[in-house]
Design goal:
The protein is α+β, with helices and mostly antiparallel strands. Helix content is 17%, strand content 30%. The chain folds into four domains: 4-18 and 168-321, MoaB/Mog-like domain (Molybdenum Cofactor Biosythetic Enzyme, Chain A), CATH 3.40.980.10; 22-42 and 139-166, Molybdopterin biosynthesis moea protein, domain 2 (Alpha-Beta Complex), CATH 3.90.105; 48-128, Molybdopterin biosynthesis moea protein, domain 3 (Molybdopterin biosynthesis moeA protein, domain 3), CATH 2.170.190.11; 325-392, Beta Barrel (Beta-clip), CATH 2.40.340. It has helices spanning 4-14, 149-157, 198-207, 222-233, 253-258, 295-313, and strands at residues 20-24, 32-33, 37-38, 48-49, 53-56, 65-71, 85-89, 101-104, 108-111, 114-117, 127-128, 139-141, 162-166, 170-176, 180-181, 193-194, 211-218, 238-242, 263-267, 271-272, 278-282, 286-291, 325-328, 340-348, 351-354, 371-375, 387-392. The strands form seven sheets. It has a six-stranded mixed sheet with strand order 8-5-7-6-10-9, with no helix packed on it. It has a six-stranded mixed sheet with strand order 17-14-18-22-21-19, with helices on both faces. Strands 20, 23, 24, 25, 26 and 27 form a six-stranded mixed sheet that branches. β9 (108-111) and β10 (114-117) form a beta hairpin. α3 runs parallel beside α6. It is elongated, with a radius of gyration of 30 Å. The chain binds ligand LQZAQKY5 and molybdate ion. Molybdate ion (MOO) is lined by residues 272-275, 292, 294, 297, 360. Catalyzes the insertion of molybdate into adenylated molybdopterin with the concomitant release of AMP. This is Molybdopterin molybdenumtransferase.
Length: 393
């Protein structure tokens, strides 16, 4: 068995970004930029008003002034103003030449073309200068940036119809086990078990930048597993299998898929949970990641291997999603045993609270497990107040 760090190093080395694609901005959410985004225009494009009111010359105040025109957002720049003149102006509208202040409409009174100030106008000039947000040619987003809602604002404001990005990895999920049925159909079938892992893996993969193309449940029949795996592999970059990873008589998944054009990267790791996890790489950047069937084992190994694999294929840094940090233990933690332990716990008042139940088949408790808590295999127990390596789960 190899260590978790050795397995991670192998997968990190094997996984790089997929192809670069040109994507319409409306389709680019969640992708990572393969090239930076440069502004094609200034923002603002000219000096604009930050308020609804009147554009004036500061030296003419307090007035009275004569209103000589109007300026709306999207309209052509109005004619310039001279001494004693003002222009009715709205937020985002171009400021006329000569004006250097906007009076908010709340502090003026108008009668026909006549304007008088009736309140304090203070320090703020309420003018956003041309290019004060960004300049044409300026880099607004660096290559590698993932496009979330805030980054999409910058990309669209740069006046880009399309961006260059790394293609999202396509993931397919194959759960294996005669006992598995769709959630909602187990209660009246003796021995049946809801497939509780597929929806969770799909969501996790999505969160890290993947597209889910398909999923299937296979019985413990090697021919069926092989057939379904081949069908799914035709359409995806990463096939994630669930179950059938250990040594049980019916644990066919690993044996069915490992042949063919796939080369095993690792199989069996000295970690708990997750000992049976395995990974193979095929031609053309295709991966099969075999996760154990115990639900907690599956989710822990997905967080530790699938999340960074998806991130790396999507153009990110493999280690970026493995941000271990030191937390203080809220309670004592027993010794982990010989394998490296990735225990579950919750964040409690800024500290790590380890769970007493560390069964790898647990499902209910996963809903409360914010943290993975890492202990080196063979190390001793830890006391409340001592430091522990923690990862957001
Ligand atoms: N003799 C040994 N037995 C086991 C070993 C071992 O080394 N020697 N390893 C144990 C470890 S560690 C794990 S983890 C489990 C995982 O084994 P498999 O990956 O082969 O998983 P299965 O046997 O198919 O299933 C285990 C368990 O999980 C349930 N399961 C499976 N898929 C799902 C799903 N999609 N949704 C919900 N539950 C699922 C399945 O019904 C079983 O109860 O093996 C140990 N055994
Ligand atoms: O390693 Mo298994 O994943 O403990 O339960």
């Amino acid at each position: 068995m190899i260590s978790f760090d050795e397995a991670s190093a192998i997968l990190r080395e094997a996984a790089g970004p997929l192809e670069e694609v040109r994507v319409a901005i409306g389709e680019a959410a969640g992708l990572r930029l393969s090239r930076s985004v440069e502004a094609r225009i200034d923002a603002p494009r000219f000096d604009v008003s930050a308020m609804d009111g009147y554009a004036v010359r500061d030296t003419d105040l307090p007035g009275p002034l004569r209103i000589v025109g109007k300026s709306y957002a999207g309209s052509q720049a109005p004619a310039g103003i001279s001494q004693g003149e003002a222009v009715r102006i709205f937020t985002g509208a171009p400021v006329p030449e000569g004006a250097d202040r906007v009076l908010v409409q709340e502090i003026v009174e108008t009668r026909g073309e006549q304007l008088e100030t009736v309140g304090e106008y203070g320090e703020a000039r309420h003018i956003r200068a041309r290019g004060s947000d960004f300049r044409e040619g300026e880099t607004l987003l660096d290559a590698g940036t993932r496009l979330g809602p805030r980054q999409l604002v910058a990309a669209a404001a740069a006046d880009c119809a399309e961006v260059w990005a790394w293609r999202a990895p396509r993931i397919a999920i194959l759960a294996t086990g005669d006992e598995l049925v769709a959630p909602g159909t187990a209660s009246d079938r003796p021995g049946a078990l809801p497939d509780s892992i597929t929806p969770a893996l799909a969501e996790m993969a999505r969160q890290y930048g993947a597209t889910i193309v398909d999923s299937a449940v296979a019985p413990d029949d090697p021919d069926r597993i092989e057939e379904l795996a081949a069908r799914l592999l035709d359409r995806c970059d990463v096939l994630v299998t669930i179950g059938g990873a250990s040594v049980g008589e019916r644990d066919f998944a690993s044996r069915s898929i490992e042949g063919g054009n796939f080369r095993t990267l690792f199989s069996r790791i000295a970690m708990r949970p997750g000992k049976p996890v395995w990974c193979a790489k095929g031609d053309g950047e295709r991966f099969v990641l075999g996760l154990p069937g115990n639900p907690t084992s599956a989710l822990v190994t997905a967080r530790l291997f699938l999340a960074p694999l998806v991130t790396a294929l999507a153009g990110g840094d493999y280690d970026e999603v493995l941000g271990w940090r030191e937390l203080e233990l809220a309670e004592d933690l027993p010794a982990p045993g010989p394998r490296e332990h990735f225990g579950r716990g919750a964040l409690s008042k800024g500290n790590a609270l380890p769970f007493a139940n560390q069964q790898s088949g647990a499902q209910a408790l996963l809903a409360k497990a914010d943290l993975l808590l890492r202990q080196t295999g063979g190390s001793g127990g830890l006391s409340a107040g001592q430091a522990i390596q923690a990862l957001d789960f």
